[in-house]
Amino acid sequence: MSTILKLTAAEYDSMIERGAFDGLPRRIELIRGELREMNPAGPVHEDYIDYLNRWSVSSTEASDCVVRVQSSIDLDDSRPEPDIAWLKPGRYARRRPQATDVLLVIEVAGSSPNDDLEEKAALYAQFDIAEYWVVDIQGRCIHVHRQSDGTRFQEVVQVASGDSIAPVCKPSATLVLAELLAE
């Protein structure tokens, strides 16, 4: 009989500090105490992240938010590394951003958006993340999640490729999906 080894966030952080994952040819993140391997990003996935990063930075000021790319946030026994995160203004050198620091999380989903639409959505809802977007490459849309009740998001809408969207925290930051989805 085998058992999944669960790690505490402190154990995971200690392993990172000691270099336990240095040199690994793959990316991992801690989700609900389990190490999860992240799928490698292909050119389209990377292009979408680049586009979203440029859009985020050009649509905001330093006084609005800090934009981070593929950096971890602290959600108790999880250390997800969303593709894009908008955080409350400040420096995060002494601690990881926590849920109360997060204004917007964006994940880019390639061939299988189910993990992002199910498990990650439940995780982000549990911690009352204000807004969570899943860019569905194959579906050519964005799944927008808002208004968590602590278990799930109450508002979930799908924004189609001909539409635009703006985050609640910065309504003037309009993302035109046709521009994002153009390859």
What does this entry look like structurally?
The protein is an alpha+beta fold and 183 residues long. It has four helices and ten strands. A six-stranded mixed β-sheet has the order 3-4-5-6-7-8. The protein starts with 8 loop residues before the first helix and ends with a helix. The mean pLDDT is 92.
Named CATH architecture: Alpha-Beta Complex
Q: How many β-strands, per DSSP?
A: 10
Radius of gyration: 16 Å
CATH class: Alpha Beta
Which consecutive residue ranges, at least 5 long each, have pLDDT under 50?
none
Tell me, rounded to a whole number, the average pLDDT: 92
Give, in spatial order, the strands making up the sheet with the most strands. Answer: 3-4-5-6-7-8
Query: Structural class of the secondary elements?
Result: alpha+beta
Could you say how many structural domains there are in total? 1
Q: How far apart lie the N and C ends?
A: 48 Å
CATH topology description = tt1808, chain A
Helix content: 10-25%
Order of helices and strands: HEEHEEEHEEEEEH
